[in-house]
Write a structure and sequence with these properties.
The chain has nine helices and 13 strands. By secondary structure, it is of the alpha+beta class. The protein has one domain: Glutamine Phosphoribosylpyrophosphate, subunit 1, domain 1, CATH 3.60.20. The strands form two sheets. An eight-stranded mixed beta sheet has the order 4-3-2-6-5-1-11-12. Strands 7-8-9-10-13 form a five-stranded mixed beta sheet. Bound molecules: aspartic acid (ASP).
Amino acid sequence: MLNRRTFLSKSALLGLFAFAPFAKSCADPEQSAPLATPEGPPRFPMLITTWNHGIPANEAAWEVIAAGGKAIDAVEQGVRVVENDPEGHSVGLGGAPDRDGHVTLDACIMDETGNCGAVCFLEHIKNPISVARKVMDETPHVMLAGEGALQFALEQGFEKENLLTEESEKLWKKWRETSDYKPLINIENHDTIGMLALDKEGNISGACTTSGLAYKMRGRVGDSPIIGAGLFCDNEVGGAVATGMGELVMKTLGTFLVVELMRQGRSPQQACEEAVDRIAKKLPNFDDFQIGFLAINKRGEHGSYAIHKGFNYALHDGKSNELIDSDFLME
Ligand code: ASP
């Protein structure tokens, strides 16, 4: 844990090189921006989804929303598109394996009633989000892991598949030449997919699904399937999703924090900035990693913030489906 003195010296050092962006966000809380003042009518339905692959995910989710469907069905259908895409190496089929060559998937889903389901360390099933939905709908539990999650999925009729595509196997074999385990700052636009939906009724739901960090240790589970870390929704307030180095999000319970800050009156943008600042103030070497938070409130106001440049998200409001670059703490 970073102590105050270390943080101050780190801040001072950063100040020498990157004073402006850092100072903006790590300002004295007493001097931080005023609470949000809602203006205009609420805007929904609306979808927001992490990274470039948010665009096709939003397209599929919008079909559900436009037909009058519920947010929970929209987010499930939306992220499945990306889970099914073998070209993406961060989610579902074709996801990067762990360092031993096994593809292990994490996902969670949460609806407007506070009901939720999750799976982690799940192998051989390309749609973990739908298994998570089944955990939510068909069991008294919230999360199933590993062998138990697979057994449940097979009982529910999911197909057992090899998720390691030729391409991801090739990349893994290349990595094994050095086996250099150094999670890099993730600024490429292909990462965990987190989606938040406000349906025509203004109800909110969210989904989050990933293959986790490429070449992780076997058994490693990140933030994405953890309710309150990778995803949190509260129908009185709004919702948030996270992407990036899961360990940092888990240590700060990032999306729960974002939603609670919105409950206290922060705008989604202010809440995402404060959650990143919390990581920057508390965790050592935070700047070695990328984290992005994305949030929406019940009025359809949305915001995002990341440690590093490069995070983006897709916004669908029925008129357009477009990519928006996130604001960030450091260049
Ligand atoms: N948050 C995910 C994890 O740590 C990975 C990512 O979004 O890059 O498993």
